[in-house]
Amino acid sequence: MGAGMAQLEGYYFSAALSCTFLVSCLLFSAFSRALREPYMDEIFHLPQAQRYCEGHFSLSQWDPMITTLPGLYLLSVGVVKPASWIFGWSEHVVCSIGMLRFVNLLFSVGNFYLLYLLFRKVQPRHKGRQRNTCIYLRNFEVDCLALNSVHLQVVLLLAGYP
Fold first, then answer.
1. What was the pLDDT predicted at 96?
2. % of the chain at pLDDT higher than 70
3. Which of 34, 36, 16 is nearest to 24 (CA)?
4. What ranges do the domains of the chain cover?
5. What letter would DSSP give residue 127?
6. How many whole angstroms separate alpha carbon 102 and alpha carbon 107?
7. Potential cystine with 76: which of 103, 153, 154, 156 (Cβ 3.0-4.6 Å)?
8. Residue 87, Cβ neighbours under 10 Å: how many?
9. Cα 26 to the chain's mean position, in Å?
10. Distance separating the N- and C-terminal Cα atoms of the chain
11. What are the entry keywords (predicted)?
12. Is-contact 13 116, C-beta < 8 A?
């Protein structure tokens, strides 16, 4: 790929990432205004995330209704605590439902970037050394062009669901 094409790809990616962030922020704002209280599984996860945010990591305070590992809670603390120190926010603001939801928005944009990197790794970049990217499912060849569009669809779908 020439230098001009690589630069153009960078511009396209920057535009796509910016649009993803903008749309995510607009959706976040709309949902945050409409849903002020925890909904669905946030009923379980929000109190647990707030305990972690407040520095209570004891296993005795773990909600037995939660079956997932505490990774997102720990990462959320790693994002919101430094922000509270930098901006001087109170613990009430930092551990609020809106801030913890915003951390998920940041991770969804991060997922978009990671999936873009994965897409670049899977797709051949040079016409001269193009690899065979077809897959075979039970002896049926899947069309290469269809596979490329499937990759794109999977990247876009997964970027929207962190």
1. 86
2. 72
3. 16
4. 3-160
5. S
6. 9
7. 103
8. 9
9. 16
10. 31
11. Endoplasmic reticulum, Glycosyltransferase, Membrane, Transferase, Transmembrane, Transmembrane helix
12. yes
